[in-house]
Amino acid sequence: MIASASVYGVKPLRLPFDVSLTMPGSKSHANRAIIAACLSKGITTIHSATPCDDVTLLVKNLHKMGFELRYTDRAAGTLVICGGIPQGNDVSKTIKLNCGNAGTTLRFLTALSCIVPGNFLITGNRAMLRRPIDDLVQSLKRHGAVIEDANGFPPIRVHGGSLEGGETLLDAKKSSQYLSALLLIAPALPKGLRVRLSGKPASPSYIDLTHKVMNDFGVHVRPGNAMVSVSASATYRSPKRYEIEGDWSAAGSFLVLSDLTKSRVQFTNLLSDSSQGDSMLPMVLHRLRRKGRLTIDCTDIPDQVMNLAVRAAFRDGVTILTGAGNLRFKECDRLSVLTSELSKAGIRIREHADGVTIKGPSRLKPAILDPHDDHRMAFCFAVLGSLFPGIRIKNPECVSKSYPHFFGDLEKLHGSSRCIAIVGMRGSGKSTLARALAEKLHLKHRDTDIVFERQSGPIRAFVGKHGWSSFRKEEERIVSESLDPGYIVSLGGGAIESQICRDRLKESTFVIYLNVRTSSLIRRLRKESRPPLTNLPLHVEVREVLKKRRPLYRSVANLTVSETESISDIINSLRRQCSS
């Protein structure tokens, strides 16, 4: 965990991992739902609104504006909101709303303040004062808002409470948050809302999320390519209880790490049918496993460009990430910072107008990387440091913007080793290798043949009485029950012939195939008393069985080792799976 460190040294992963994580509630989802609840009639209890910086800032500023809301359980993210537009603000005073570096918060409050009686000064930190706001301000002015910005940037001054609605023009190419901000206040406008779009909005998946939240609160948005509208009769209705989805954006770093290290990560609170654009990331990662030149359109997943750039540094070929020009207007100019910082670590990357190009694989080197107070930069640097030693991150505390316990969850990966399965022909030495690896890596060992004999007696006697088919059925069950995280499991030589076993191996384990020479297998098996698999002479049987099984071993193997490799060699090979 991080205390008050100004630089965080990321520990490279030691082994592939198998871990279950609970993501913070999506701040994008939470902030939209909080605005809708504030404008609804009745009381709404929102659950899993993780009090990260962005959500906390929104709640704090809404309270200053006069809205009734409070956390009843901060740890669980339980937020109770009594809806209704405040009417009692003193118009002789100016209420200052400091949004820090929270772009969503500032843009949503800019629109919201126009319908709340009172005088407001909406500002932020130094970085926030460099983020454009003019397109939203001009659109609100066309509605009749009394609002002024500072030459197109914050701070913004608003005399609120007089907005009627109707039709307006908006350029949302720099940020989809402009359109979302207008849509969220639309049900409170007497004339409804019609927004004519002068171009294609950035990050359309986030506009879809706005539509979803509004629909959850009883308001239908009529979408279109040139015009988006909300009826004058539309009214928010409180659902009373509302659950915030786990954040797919936050999961991106762990999905990329899992993909690169042949690990497994599961999430307790991510929805496969989520409206969040970043839920598409697993499909994009699948494409990145190909070799050669590849172009990825990141229009719907701009927040993953940073993680994808790190993933691209490890693939064989040129990767072009496009459709992310709006990243230049985030907490920092993400395309410029990404290029300059990853270059320090040896990654061959160059920026262009709407993305970056990466040539891989890269020859990495240690570096101290500066996220420029941007949480998503810190996330991708942590991915890189988990794969290569010597990566240190300045100002790691910036992750609190969306994911306060990110580095704590990263630590969990080190303590949850993925099950390592050893496969190969009988007589190859799988059990010996598994025991030696378990001792060296401080993991537990399990042998499926030994488990079988404890439950059903000697294999030779069981096969003689019930036949090989019955043995294989029992073996399938034992294998399926044995592949637990933190174990090294040696399997019987024929387990690989079962499709069920192969599927379980691919799903749950990192597989090492112990490939032993045919002559060595024959020599070892002559000394053992194992039941024959066929009626053929041993030397013929071994060759015939090996001919059948070898393609199956290879089909599941993540690592193939020979009988001549030492334990140290194999451990080093394992660890190379978690590095460049």
Task: Please give a structural write-up.
With about 575 residues, this protein is of the alpha/beta class. It has three domains: about 5-25 and about 245-415, Enolpyruvate transferase domain (UDP-n-acetylglucosamine1-carboxyvinyl-transferase, Chain), CATH 3.65.10.10; about 25-245, UDP-n-acetylglucosamine1-carboxyvinyl-transferase, Chain; about 420-575, P-loop containing nucleotide triphosphate hydrolases (Rossmann fold, 3-Layer(aba) Sandwich), CATH 3.40.50. It is built from 20 helices and 25 strands. A hairpin with a 4-residue loop joins strand 4 (about 70-75) and strand 5 (about 80). The longest helix is centred in the C-terminal third of the chain and has 19 residues, at about 540-555. It is elongated, with a radius of gyration of 29 Å. The two termini are about 25 Å apart.
Q: How much helix, percentage-wise, in residues?
A: 25-40%
CATH class of the largest domain: Alpha Beta
Whole-Å distance between the termini? 25 Å
The structural domain count equals 3
Which spans of ≥5 residues are poorly predicted at pLDDT below 50?
none
CATH topology of the largest domain: UDP-n-acetylglucosamine1-carboxyvinyl-transferase, Chain
Quaternary state reads: single chain
- Output the number of helix runs: 20
Structural class: alpha/beta
Whole-number radius of gyration?
A: 29 Å
Beta-strand level of the residues, as a percent range?
A: 15-25%
Mean pLDDT: 93
Spatial order of the strands forming the largest sheet? 22-23-21-24-25
Overall morphology: elongated
CATH superfamily of the largest domain: Enolpyruvate transferase domain
CATH architecture term of the largest domain: Alpha-beta prism
Q: Mind describing the biggest β-sheet?
A: 5 strands, parallel
The count of strands amounts to 25
